[in-house]
Amino acid sequence: MKWLRSDSYSIPTLLAIGLHACIVIVGLIAIDFSDDEAPKPKRPPIVKATVVDISQTVIGKREAQEKAAKQQAALAAQKKKEAEINKKKEAKRRALEDKKKKLAKAKREKAEAEKKEKLLQQKKAEQQRLAKEKELAKKRLAEQAEKKRLEEKVAKEKKRKEDELARKAEAERLAEEERKHQEEAARLAEQKKAEEAAALAAAEEAKKRAAEEAQMVQSISGLINDRITAAWTRPPNARNGMKTYLRIYFLPNGEVRDVEITKSSGDGLFDQKAVDAVYKVAKIDELSKIDSYVFERNFRQVDLIFNPQDLRN
Questions:
Q1: CATH top-level class for 232-306?
Q2: Where in the chain are all domains bearing CATH 3.30.1150.10?
Q3: pLDDT score recorded for residue 2
Q4: How far is Cα 254 from Cα 295, in angstroms, rounded to an integer?
Q5: Residue 112 has pLDDT above 80, yes or no
Q6: Which of 253, 247, 246 is nearest to 295 (CA)?
Q7: Closest-CA residue to 270 (of 240, 296, 298, 237)
Q8: Largest pairwise CA distance in the chain
Q9: 3-state DSSP assignment of residue 245
């Protein structure tokens, strides 16, 4: 604040002081300070007062100016103070805002840093996880490869043993087959030898039987021919050279079942007499005593050429 000059207020100040001093002196004179008895009321003095508009005086104008100046100065000071207060508040607010901004920025930077750190940690953890998984996968592959190698080794060894056992079994089987083959060959050789011996014996026996059979057949055939000839009645017209071919059917007991002419002699009577002679014989008892095989082969049916030797020329 700028102070007013001292000479501009000296006269009004003196006047004001003098007026106040007069008022104080008059007051002191009028008041009775005695303690005896109450003072009697006095007749108030008659004072003639003249109203003076001090504002119209030079002093009043100066005082008004000084008062207005003081008010303006006070108002300016108040505004300045308020401005300073507002400035401080604004500065404080800005400082607070700056602080908040800095704190927010720091918080954001911290959050971003933490986020980056977290992402970095996550990336690192992911890399470690991937590396661990890769290592585990590599380890698993190695284990699988080793397992496969061992399995192949075991399978190969098993197959080798199985092949060896199979070869051994096959060798034993072949040896057994060879032994059986040799035994069978020996048996077949013995059997062949025995069969050859038996065949030879059978052949000898068959030969012997055939000879015996032939002899017997010849003998019985001659017997049949003789008996039929003996039973034959010579017809008058019988001549040398006549031959009747007969087929005689015998039963196993030697009886004549049937007889037929397979070739005629050309003479009906001669043929009929030959047939009658067969039926007259009726039975050859010797046939019932021979073997059935020999009978079936030789005497079931007998072809006979009836040609008596005693015919006339």
A1: alpha beta
A2: 232-306
A3: 44
A4: 10
A5: yes
A6: 253
A7: 237
A8: 252
A9: strand
